[in-house]
Write a structure and sequence with these properties.
elongated; 26% helix; 2 strands; 149 residues
């Protein structure tokens, strides 16, 4: 939901191709021109509000929450397209209905309430410190102990 971190365009090449106005910005600022220094903007020929618009969304977290709530509201209005486990049901061209994967945060029960997210075994282990971190490996030093290495 956020192109700001540039994870889908790490090199910036896609942005440079399709938004040439930003093409001369440093790779670290091409996805966030509003964070570029005045010097970088000047060198790149970018004038925010003139040849490239000012940022429209300033609070990504709040906008994401609104987006999730809008999806949930839509799903609540169309309960017949949710199965008992909160998955989407779709109708195929043949008329057959099938369920499809639905992100956990969008799964609702028959009352329209977001379903409790069950943690996987891996998530549970990580939560109690049994993951693959420094303190999660067998033989690793525990908190307050010195390593045997």
């Amino acid at each position: 939901m956020s192109p700001e971190n540039g994870s889908q365009d790490a090199s910036g090449d896609y942005t440079r191709r399709w938004i040439p106005e930003l093409g001369l910005l440093p790779k670290t600022k091409i996805h966030q021109p509003w964070k570029a220094s005045e010097e970088d903007l000047r060198k790149a020929g970018v004038v925010l509000g003139e040849n490239y618009p000012h940022r429209i969304v300033t609070d990504l977290k709040a906008e994401r929450e609104k987006s999730v709530e809008a999806v949930l509201d839509m799903r609540r209005q169309h309960q017949q397209w949710n199965d008992d486990n909160g998955y989407d049901i779709i109708e195929l061209p043949s008329g057959e209905r099938t369920k499809v994967f639905t992100k956990k945060e969008y799964r609702i029960d028959k009352y329209g309430l977001v379903m409790e997210i069950q943690k996987s075994g891996r998530e549970k282990a990580k939560a109690r410190g049994g993951g693959r971190g420094r303190n999660g490996r067998k033989g690793g030093a525990k908190k307050g102990e010195k390593s045997r290495k």
